[in-house]
Known about the structure:
Blueprint: E1 4-7, H1 12-25, E2 30-34, H2 38-41, E3 49-52, H3 58-68, E4 72-75, H4 81-86, H5 88-109, E5 112-114, E6 117-118, H6 142-161, E7 165-166, E8 168-170, E9 172-174, H7 187-196, E10 201-203, E11 211-215, H8 216-228, E12 240-241, E13 245-247, H9 249-257, E14 265-267, H10 271-278, H11 287-293, H12 301-324
Parallel strand pairs: 1-2, 1-4, 2-3, 4-5, 5-7, 6-8, 8-12, 9-11, 10-14
Antiparallel strand pairs: 11-13
Helix pairs in contact: 1-8, 3-5, 5-6, 7-9, 7-12
Amino acid sequence: MERFLVTGAGGQIGTELVRHLGNRHGADAILATDVRDPSVWARGGPGAQVGQLDCLDADALLGTARDFGTTCILHLASILSAAAEASPYRAYRVNMDSLVNVLEAAAKIGCRVFAPSSIAVFGPESPRDPAPQTTVLRPTTMYGVTKVAGEMLSDYYHARFGVDVRGLRFPGLVSYTAPPGGGTTDYAVEIFHAAVERRRFSCPLHPDTRMAMMYMPDAIRAILELMDADSSSLRHRNAYNVSAMHFTPAELADAIRARRPEFEIAFEPDPVRQAIADSWPTRIDDARAREEWGWHHEYELPEMVDAMLQGLEGLRRRRAAVLAR
């Protein structure tokens, strides 16, 4: 029987991944953890057992994984790109020390690991349109540095200790179920909140900044399908490029205005976020993922915009109903 330990479960990916795992395997098979107290992030019940866990505490991590009978650790705890630039030393410690603790625990108890990578591994010297699966990786952000190092560390633990560790280089992710977590592409989430709340949005990027993006249901499906894939077919097991759509802030705003004509946007670029965005590719070549384990995306920009607006409107109505009681 599979038993999944999820770290960083209160974040943007974890919130939805835990629910999908619970639906598939049952709540008793999932232990959702976060460095924060569950009362902060697990309201409403995530469909799993919950707990508080600091992944920087190697002994606590190993003990939790062993006591739960973990067969797979899904390691989502991380400091994201924009937040990492605000505190690079903290980001290095959290991102790298937590990963090595997870890999050590996996080597000792013999479980599998999912450790996501990112578009941030690419830098100014990488091809931009598209970024290939194998190319020079010299990022200019601390987040990117930790993701490149994480891919290499995962390679090492697979080769040296036989840990079955797998990962995906995600583009920007868009979701309405959890608040943004400090990433450069957070504007593509925040803009929908502004549209639903009928307020003007100030975009921190230039209107023509084209970036690779993905709607969260595609990202969750990519994780599950990669972890289900036959290990013998995986040649790039811990660093698969995956992609879906790519658009600019102006194109996203136009798509929202087509559905919400009253929506207004101003472009007021933040120098730090803009510099990060400019260092990343506009598209990602994910042919290896499509060939080796059958990856394909389902959501393009129009479908994502419809789903985001409907989802956020539903959340707004439910919250209003609770307050009215």
